[in-house]
Write a structure and sequence with these properties.
11 helices; mainly alpha
Amino acid sequence: MGADSFHDQLAEDSAFLKTDHRLDTELVDKLILQLNRIYPQILTDKEASKFRNLEVPTSVRLGELLTHLQSKGDEACREFYRALHLHVEEVYYSLPTRLRLRDSLDPLRYPLNQQQKHVLNNHGPFFFMGSFSIALGLALIYYYGEAKVTGGSRALGMAALGLKKKAQEVLIWYTEETLRK
């Protein structure tokens, strides 16, 4: 997760977590139960019962839980982040430390803004339409110039092979007409 320890990250994220309204009573209970059941050495049954006391407001219980986890050490903080990621992914990805980590990624691999991402597409739709029109014009001039010299309209008859019945009939008719001339 970076150079910072999980303990340092949790200290930085604590203020955000205490004020985030997405962490309601049910989600805080899920986090507590996850830590208690999977890692009883981090959160004992007695401690879990204390943090699940519904008479205490959720923000206060969460604040006490975060302080307790920080006192337990880096491993406890890491497991809290795992539980948070598992149960409340949208909160996990909006943590200040996660946002800082995302913004500090290599700018060559992950462009900072969309403008850098589409360097070849900075001319706009009119440039594309103009280039396409020129290419189409040159292709038509080449095709019709070839038809006069080498009978290139036979290629049009061959192109009809992969088309549906009606289109095939039209192209073959056009080919036969140009050969009679």
